[in-house]
Amino acid sequence: MAGNIFGHILRLVSFGESHGPMIGGVLDGFPSNFTVDFSGIALAMERRKPGVGKFQTTRSETDEVQFVSGIHEGKTTGAPIAFLIANHDQRPADYTGLSNFFRPSHAAFAWDKKYGHQDMRGGGRSSARETAVRVAAGALVAQLLEKYGITISACVSQIGSVKAAVPDNAFVPELIYSTELRCPDTEAAALMDILLAELKSAGDTTGGVVSCRITGVPAGIGEPVFDRLQADLAKAMMGINAAKGFDYGDGFAAAESLGSAHNDPFTFADNVIRPASNHAGGILGGISTGEPIHFRVAFKPVSSLGMSQRTVDIHGTPKDLTIKGRHDVCIVPRAVPVVEAMAALVVADHMIMSGIIRHNNS
Amino acid sequence: MAGNIFGHILRLVSFGESHGPMIGGVLDGFPSNFTVDFSGIALAMERRKPGVGKFQTTRSETDEVQFVSGIHEGKTTGAPIAFLIANHDQRPADYTGLSNFFRPSHAAFAWDKKYGHQDMRGGGRSSARETAVRVAAGALVAQLLEKYGITISACVSQIGSVKAAVPDNAFVPELIYSTELRCPDTEAAALMDILLAELKSAGDTTGGVVSCRITGVPAGIGEPVFDRLQADLAKAMMGINAAKGFDYGDGFAAAESLGSAHNDPFTFADNVIRPASNHAGGILGGISTGEPIHFRVAFKPVSSLGMSQRTVDIHGTPKDLTIKGRHDVCIVPRAVPVVEAMAALVVADHMIMSGIIRHNNS
Amino acid sequence: MAGNIFGHILRLVSFGESHGPMIGGVLDGFPSNFTVDFSGIALAMERRKPGVGKFQTTRSETDEVQFVSGIHEGKTTGAPIAFLIANHDQRPADYTGLSNFFRPSHAAFAWDKKYGHQDMRGGGRSSARETAVRVAAGALVAQLLEKYGITISACVSQIGSVKAAVPDNAFVPELIYSTELRCPDTEAAALMDILLAELKSAGDTTGGVVSCRITGVPAGIGEPVFDRLQADLAKAMMGINAAKGFDYGDGFAAAESLGSAHNDPFTFADNVIRPASNHAGGILGGISTGEPIHFRVAFKPVSSLGMSQRTVDIHGTPKDLTIKGRHDVCIVPRAVPVVEAMAALVVADHMIMSGIIRHNNS
Amino acid sequence: MAGNIFGHILRLVSFGESHGPMIGGVLDGFPSNFTVDFSGIALAMERRKPGVGKFQTTRSETDEVQFVSGIHEGKTTGAPIAFLIANHDQRPADYTGLSNFFRPSHAAFAWDKKYGHQDMRGGGRSSARETAVRVAAGALVAQLLEKYGITISACVSQIGSVKAAVPDNAFVPELIYSTELRCPDTEAAALMDILLAELKSAGDTTGGVVSCRITGVPAGIGEPVFDRLQADLAKAMMGINAAKGFDYGDGFAAAESLGSAHNDPFTFADNVIRPASNHAGGILGGISTGEPIHFRVAFKPVSSLGMSQRTVDIHGTPKDLTIKGRHDVCIVPRAVPVVEAMAALVVADHMIMSGIIRHNNS
């Protein structure tokens, strides 16, 4: 497994298993002399934390981020920023016996094929717990981007069949995170709540969609032809657990549209030439246009069900399986800060590659 | 612009502009002693070639691939495989005057912001012409994969609002490429044909969706947590011109489904444990399961319209713009071999990284 | 600072400062299902540990390696292997006041230019303490190589002007590490001992040379033209603190020799064609030949002297500086396991890239 | 073979064989809007060209560099810069029969082990001809560096046992390249000339050393701990054909020196704090100090001798071998521009990574 390093110049290394003593990360290539707002990082961790909502795992973690290198007296030094997050509530006993089964649609099957073993304790690296590392790093990177006027905000725009309206002005993190489902459309959120309550009692799960909006990105980042901005965003998002789809701008809907309706005509106002609309989603030819960037990520239903499922054990004998662990009815609200974090990593990496953010602050 | 190299170990370098003397590529990391079927590469080029269908640019190119290194007496040597494709029919005159305009939704606007100039001759690197390089390399790589029992087949599954049925058994390259629209659903194709004829006469364009199916990939390729197989596929696909979305398995539809319906239960038959269904799309936890891999790529409408568009010139003065060049009504049929090519590069790269295909054949 | 990740497929991430709470590393891409010999790693750490010899810093560290991920029940899982090494004896007070000075030939000057600050506490990342991370990772990787019949052994071949004889059969780790100066030539070692005692009492320091021999590497690893085996070895060695030179085979002496004397004629014996001599040092054209690989690394004198030195303070005022910290008279004996560790990383990375060691053990 | 791409952000791809139709390269990541001085590139090619000196191969090549992409109307566009160099005088017949032999110390032996074949026509990729690609790219990059006040100059400082004096003020490219042996010490050059004449008539060869000096590099480039500036320079130099050693600053001599003599004390003059001497060679802790950078590269004797050599054929039968091709008595003078080119690539790559040279000129 060699895929635990993300990025071109600003690179995040992720390590740790769900049921080991800790998880952690190393962020290499972050500029020096940047004053870290630790409370902002704690807030991001709080927003991702398990055990918050009634439809989420009851696993309880404080998710305190312990920075062990690269920061001195509150400022980054230019050295790699390493951090640790302890696992307090791993309860491996919940998973006893599970190693004898292939859980439907669970990563353990593929893991076994690749590495020659199932990590029996809750999925190991494939657990959503690993995403806490991304959120910690992403929160730090988002602070750097803020200095350059860039803001990133995501929210839930769909759960199961319930679709929310998420206009541009709905992307207000404080409002979004004040709701349990991370959905700014209160009417839709009420319906989602009803759906999830039903699913919870049935022991079932569902998927959903996270929408993300990035403002303030200057025109000119993105590296065609292969490292286009949307290509790196897509890779980042499709590397999140349970992600099944990515699109940006009009996305899949663009496939149905006509050029005459989809094209964004240019206008001239306030001495600036810019597109009058933004079907493009802020990126043309792989390069940011200066308009807001927006994209969506689709997530599948959580594979661990409370209800009984038919499957086979490791000897191939058919069995009914009921998974006892503490699981989410819907992972999507918890994916919101993860989407924001990965977006921050991609944008900052490209800002540094383009020389707009200086790699080092000397 | 540093983004012209794709892949981890098997790497494709792409160079050349639409209206320069030639385009070309270098494929590094291809195993030695592999016997190349040049006619197979010529066939792939033929399938991507402009000027074939009545809804496509009338640009005429022979697209002969001239291999200049890395192959000796028909066999790969282990040295980088470089190849050139001449541009015969560039007609830069068609683009005269266009450099004074910002064409709506065209990459030239962002290009100007990044590089300080618009390449006035037909889009330069952002032209679909560049994808010929990928098809040439992908065709060679697909031959290598075939040796390992892996086949890749893509087709058009949607044009504008017309959706085609593309069941698993429709993925037969010979049949698909015998149709002008690369769509195996003849009923849908007839409707697409009507739609495109209307759009052509109106000077309008539309988008569509390409679906791809890969069979024979052994379980165990993909490098979690960041270099998951679907993450690298997403990056590859979102790096194709005009791509707006990617999903795999049930994709965006998975967001609406329930875990009880979406999960693929395991069964035991013929001494093998495998999922009974394939909502997962052949990948779990970022690693191939041994089942067929299927994914979709959405494309936006071509931005160059035959009809007049309102935009501004480089001084900001509003103008009506009519683009005279030879353009496609719908790029999607021509994207089919490009999707196949990029998929081949990703799968082979991961096969090599996993050590299943030996990097060198010594 | 983005340079804290080493390797192509097998990658080591290093983090931590000399005077922070801990240092550590992440090793990504190590095969799964490998049984780790923890005592072997402890032994390597013991061999590098400060405070052992009488000419070395009296800093005292237990250098226990705490593995926090990637190993389960003594076996690697395929997940990234993360480990922590606590700093117990950092004594930052020793460095009080030093931040007002530019210490001659010390990295802090360049650090200040790049990162906008001097890390006042003992050099931070530029301290030799960071090499403990490499030794821990290298020791694990060496165990993997051993399984493939590859052994790596280094020793001191020169200290100051005293040169040792280090014939092939002198590369016996047990013997080398049983000596304080890691020099198998006992006569030379006695002279070195005298020299170092003189320098210690004078408050002066000196440099030296480490020689390394690798046996059992199969023919065929190394990736010309840029990632030649010797190129990656050179990069690895020149990335060690205080290293000033690298050569392999006859090295700089080859510059003086004649082709007729330097060439290694081929012979045929025991059914194998191989070179009769090994002036080449086991590598031709960037690729291993199957013969033992041997190379040298030159190190400069430690820059922190016990004697007074003339320099300037940060305001440019000339000052006499005496550095009070606990320093080595000669770092070279402690570099021996670091050279071995970096060599192991390079060889294993190339073995994996060539597909000889399977990246994953599935 | 995956090692044909060099660099982090500014990357050179090299392709082509000595006896194929052409060699060439792709330079990705070069800033846009840079006006290219083509005559400067032609001059660099002229300086590397075979067939110039009386001790060199009589192979005759015009070595004209044909740029086929990335440059428009004399200016870089930000697109990858691809270029071709035709092979006119390959004479593969000279190598007829050689494929039956393992030539002593020739790369073909290792090539065979790795790739399963000997490229019988003059060494293929391992030929010094490949370095023409590096010189072309390096000459372009050197022009960019010049804009930032950086100059790179190399010369021959040793041939066989004859050592030249090369003080700092001897690094004047016009003077150096006006001499056949690229050696500014005329007395030493005369002795070298005598030595080479003797070796030529004997059919023997010898090695030598190239020294290089880089001025104008600002303090602060280099990425510790692994991508130190000297580590990347070492990798670059040890990736040149026939290179056996690299050192910088006092290099191997530093191993013998005392700290009190080797340390560079800081002084304050003209309002600048800088080292009073430069034993360090312009780099401390892996980061440039602002002082001139100087390093050396040792080369082995050419392995193809005019005299008869004892070896075995591919069946292991002992044979006397006399190589008929057109070969150099000493490659070292021709390595001078290659060393300069590789140094330019490394320095520019680090300047871009540090954000001092903006990756793109937008």
What features would you describe in this structure?
4 copies of one chain form a homotetramer. Chain A is an alpha+beta fold and 362 residues long. Chain A has a single domain (5-353), classed as 4-Layer Sandwich (Chorismate synthase, AroC fold), CATH 3.60.150.10. Chain A has 8 helices and 18 strands. A 5-stranded antiparallel beta sheet of chain A has the order 1-2-3-7-4, covered by helices on one side. In chain A, strand 5 (71-72) and strand 6 (75-76) form a beta hairpin. Chain A is globular, with a radius of gyration of 21 Å. The first copy, chain A, starts with a strand and ends in a 9-residue tail after the last helix. Chains in contact: A-B, A-C, A-D, B-C, B-D, C-D. At the A-B interface, strand 1, helix 2, helix 6, strand 11 and helix 7 of A face strand 1, helix 2, helix 6, strand 11 and helix 7 of B. Strand 11 of chain C pairs antiparallel with strand 11 of chain D, so a sheet runs across the interface.
